[in-house]
Amino acid sequence: MSNGSHEHAFSEDQYEEDKDDESSMGNLLQYYKNSETHPRRNRKRSNQSWPVCLHIAAIFLYGLIALLVTYHMNKRHNTVQSLIYSPANEILEYKTQLYDLDLLGDSSYFGTPSPQIDKNWHELMAPSSIHLSKSERQHYDPKSHVVQFPDGTFLGQLMVYHELHCLKRLYQYINSDYYFPNLTDREREMNKRHTEHCLGTLRQGVMCHGDVSVITFVWGKHSKVPLGEFSNPHQCVNFERLHKWALDRAVVDGLEPGVLVHPKLGEPSFAVR
C-alpha cells in the first residue's frame, strides 16, 4: 500500500511537473512569437513615421533658408559690396536720405564769404589726410613710393575728401576777389587750371557714383513747364559714421617741421616753421 501510495504521489507530482513544463514551453513559444511579430510592427510604425519626420525637417529647412535670405536682404540694404579695397570698407553703412535743395544754397558752406563759412569748411576737411598702416598700404601699387611718416605709417586720403576739396575750390573760385586777390597772370592761369581739374574730378565722381534715385515732375501753379520734384529719397553713405572713422586716423601734424620731408628735395615750402 505504502508503495502504491508513493507511486500515486509520484505520478501526481510528475503530472504537475509535466503540466508546468507544458506551460513554460507555451510561454516560451509565445515569447518567441512576440519577438518575431513586434519588431515587424515597430518597423512598420517606423516606416510610417519617416514621411512625418521628413516633412518636419523640410519645414525647418525652409524656415532657415527664409531667415537667411531675410538677413541677407536686410544686410544689403545697409551695405553695398565693394569691388575695390579700402580701409574704410568695414565701417561703411548706407541709408536713405532726402536732399535739402534750397534755391538759396547751403549757407553753412556757400554764400557771401565769411570767417564762419571758412571755419565750417576747415572742420569738414579736417580728416582730409589719414594714416595708413603697413598692411593697408600693401593693397596699393607696390612699385610706388608712398610717402611714409616717421612713425612708420603712410600718407593717404579718401577720395570723398578730395571731391569736397574740389567743391570748396569751386566756391572759392566763384569768389576769387575774396580768396585770390592780387594774383599774377601766371597764378591766375594756374588757379584756372586747378579749378578745371576739380570740375573734371567732380564730373567723374558724379558719373562714378551714379545716383539712380528718380526725380518725378509735377505741374506748377504758375508755370506751364513741368517742375522737378526732388523730394524722393536717395541711397547715401552714412557720412557721419565715415567722418568719425576718418577723424580717428587723421593726420594732425602733417605741417609740422620734420614730418613730411622729401628724401631729395627736403621739406615742402608750406611747412610751419
From TrEMBL:
Biased composition (Basic and acidic residues): 1-11
Record pathway: Mycotoxin biosynthesis
A Pfam family it matches: UstYa
Record-stated family: Belongs to the ustYa family.
BP term (GO), one: mycotoxin biosynthetic process
Domain of life: Eukaryota
Source organism (scientific name): Viridothelium virens (Speckled blister lichen)
Name recorded for this polypeptide: Tat pathway signal sequence
InterPro entries reported for this sequence: UstYa-like
Protein keywords: Membrane, Transmembrane, Transmembrane helix
Keyword Transmembrane helix annotated: yes
Ranges that cross the membrane: 50-73
Annotated segments matching region Disordered: 1-24
Compositionally biased spans, kind Acidic residues: 13-23
